[in-house]
């Protein structure tokens, strides 16, 4: 069931990334920290893109996200090999943000084009999309500029990135609540649509 998978992915994302945030400072050397940053960015991108793609039941879009994900991974490998890292992998984070904005823009386009009798704020994927938008949009310019500011500025403004992350976590929690409140599909519903053809 797709809804169970999405619920599991969101829950795993919350636990895994909360743990990963505490790992960085304890890594023994710079090379491990660089690998960590690249893996963290790709894992985050993978979770977000899966959540958006799975909420759009369109094979063409899912293939599109898969191809772009492969391109993004290839770009990250090249960037890892040639870039001079300072504090963050700013360019991959910027690319991730732009790709997610494209996916979410299409999500809203597809939702309103297909039409539904359900209000959008009752749909869990809406809260996921808005959470991702606020999180990535709210930290976009800081992440892009972080390697070009001095340590004092970094220490002064870094804590401001917590606000978009807190809002994202709240919106993800709302989506989890909505997932749990959605009615289960009854297998008997399929049989109701089959006409009664017994002539005897």
Structure description:
The protein has 200 residues and is mainly alpha-helical. It is 74% helix and 0% strand. It contains eight helices and no strands. It has helices spanning 2-21, 30-55, 59-82, 90-114, 124-145, 151-157, 162-181, 188-192. Mean pLDDT is 84; it is low at 189-200.
Q: Using DSSP, what is the number of strands?
A: 0
Helix-strand pattern, N to C? Answer: HHHHHHHH
Indicate the overall shape.
Answer: globular
Taking Cα atoms only, what radius of gyration do you get, to the nearest Å? 20 Å
Q: Structural class, judged by helices and strands?
A: mainly alpha
Largest sheet report: none
What is the residue-mean pLDDT, rounded to a whole number? Answer: 84
Number of helices: 8
Helix content: over 70%
- Poorly predicted runs of 5 or more residues: 189-200
SSE blueprint:
Elements: H1 2-21, H2 30-55, H3 59-82, H4 90-114, H5 124-145, H6 151-157, H7 162-181, H8 188-192
Helix pairs in contact: 1-2, 1-7, 2-3, 2-4, 2-5, 3-4, 4-5, 5-7
């Amino acid at each position: 069931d797709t809804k169970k998978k999405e619920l599991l992915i969101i829950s795993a994302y919350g636990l895994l990334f909360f743990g990963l945030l505490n790992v960085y400072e304890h890594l023994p050397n710079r090379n491990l920290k660089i690998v960590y940053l690249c893996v963290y960015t790709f894992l985050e991108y993978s979770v977000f893109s899966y959540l958006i793609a799975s909420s759009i039941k369109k094979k063409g879009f899912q293939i599109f996200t898969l191809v772009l994900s492969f391109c993004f991974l290839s770009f990250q490998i090249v960037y890892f090999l040639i870039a001079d890292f300072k504090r963050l992998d700013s360019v991959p984070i910027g690319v991730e943000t732009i790709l997610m904005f494209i996916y979410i823009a299409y999500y809203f386009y597809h939702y309103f084009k297909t039409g539904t009798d359900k209000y959008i704020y009752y749909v869990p994927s809406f809260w996921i999309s808005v959470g991702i938008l606020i999180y990535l949009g709210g930290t976009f310019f800081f992440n892009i500029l972080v390697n070009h500011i001095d340590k004092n500025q970094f220490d002064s403004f870094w804590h401001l990135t917590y606000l978009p992350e807190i809002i994202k976590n709240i919106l993800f929690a709302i989506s989890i609540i909505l997932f749990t409140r959605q009615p289960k599909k009854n297998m008997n519903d399929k049989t109701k649509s089959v006409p009664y053809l017994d002539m005897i």
